[in-house]
Hints:
The chain has helices at residues 3-19, 38-47, 90-93, 96-102, 286-300, 307-314; strands spanning 25-26, 50-57, 60-71, 77-89, 113-124, 130-138, 145-153, 156-163, 166-173, 178-179, 198-204, 214-229, 232-243, 257-261, 267-274, 277-283. The chain is an alpha+beta fold and 320 residues long. The protein has one domain. Helix 5 packs antiparallel against helix 6 (307-314).
Amino acid sequence: MNTFWYNVMVVATWVTAMSWLVAYKVLPSLRIGQPPSYQSILQSQREDPLVGWRVLCNEREIGWALSLTKQLADGMTRVDSLVFLERLPLEEFLPKWLQGLVLPRGVDPREIHLQMEVRSEVMFDPLSRLSWFSSNIRFPPFLDGIRVRGKADEGRLHLTVSYGEFSQQVDFPLPRHSLFGETSSPQPKLPGLREGQKWTVQVYSPFANPSQPVEILEARVEKMELIAWNGKTYPTWVVVYRSEPGKGASRTQTPRGMLWVRPDGTVLRQEATLLDSKVTFIRLGEQSAAVLAARFRELAEGEAGSPRAALEESQPSRNP
């Protein structure tokens, strides 16, 4: 691998390690209702275990995602996810200060596009507490990838990130009543929402200045809104993530992220602002998700085709 791609991978390693903590939610006292919990989320996901998504960047389709939740015989719960993105615009996903580190002089970042494949596994114990997780991030056609491993133990999260011969270990506090997620995979369920409910989110941003990687966001269930999904119109709770009040933020600022959640807790749409780009996950219908999963299994077993073809075959009418 040449120097350029090695630099890209090294920076991506650091970005990926921090990305695991972008959805690390420290739950304080709530003014209204109770915060979402692993127990309620996992129970809801077991009832609807296979979920598929279309992924868009600035309204342009760039890939798809799948997640599968399964309760094991020993009481553990496993959540597997697969995300495939192609023609990922480097300029839109890395800040300029990071571009300066990875790009050779004279290379136009607008001309650089990557593929990215993320396979993740998260395990929860019988009490629905985070136990451990693993994630493999690849940039096809390159064989080398980034490996992220984490284990929860006595209020700490032990994280190991590896790429080739490079390996780094980091420990983070993991409060007892915290949620943990992965930013590259959307949230399938968020049950028990009420208008006005809010909680704070402690964010370790992969794209912030390394000297100030921590940011506090506030999540609020702001309103009920009708959205079109899968050929029908549904009422949804709109959950909005903004910078914490008192940090120069206001209710009128551009949201950092938004979820559209049906009253039964099903997330139909998810948006996140990343630099100057808007990344959108749109949930597939059950039949489309099943077709996508079946077709991808065929591709994984070596049959002809491509990951993009799997998505196209799952939705012939282009409806979610």
